[in-house]
Design brief:
Length: about 80
């Protein structure tokens, strides 16, 4: 997840369980991966972008997020 603060990409491993109609959760592990200054600048400027630039940025962010999640889970004993 990434919010409007643009501080970084938040990744969490969580366990969800429904008991008696109520959802319970437990955060097993979590981290925030800070964005570089360049990437943060790119993200913050997207509000002024055209549709093709947004599509390209969306794809790049998807790849980046996937890579970071893969690195995060590779080093964990889950």
């Amino acid at each position: 997840m990434s919010g409007t603060s643009l501080d970084g990409l938040d990744i969490a491993i969580c366990k969800f369980k429904k008991k008696n109609g109520q959802w319970k959760y437990k955060i097993i592990d979590a981290t925030t991966i800070p964005y570089s200054k360049k990437f943060k600048s790119t993200l913050s400027s997207l509000i002024h972008s055209k549709s093709d630039e947004l599509v390209r940025a969306d794809a790049q962010f998807g790849v980046y997020s996937g890579e970071q999640v893969e690195k995060f889970i590779k080093h964990k004993p889950y």
